[in-house]
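Model it.
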Amino acid sequence: MAERDQILERLYVHLRPLTPAHVELTPETDLVGTLGLDSTTVINIVLDVEDEYDVSVPLNALADIRTAGELADLIHRLCEDG
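Modeled.
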């Protein structure tokens, strides 16, 4: 089972190419406000992570996700629920 910190590091791998040079990725990094990601980009990242961890993220759950840490928490919970 993947630990939350491992999931967060994998998210960073997906986010780094989309991150402005002056921004440091942290769990508090706002995906839209700080990184400027649009909904399509966020969905594509989620699809990659779903494949990587063999989980299905409910679209309605994404409405409450703002930060990289919140997304990692959601993926972690889904992994635990199996």
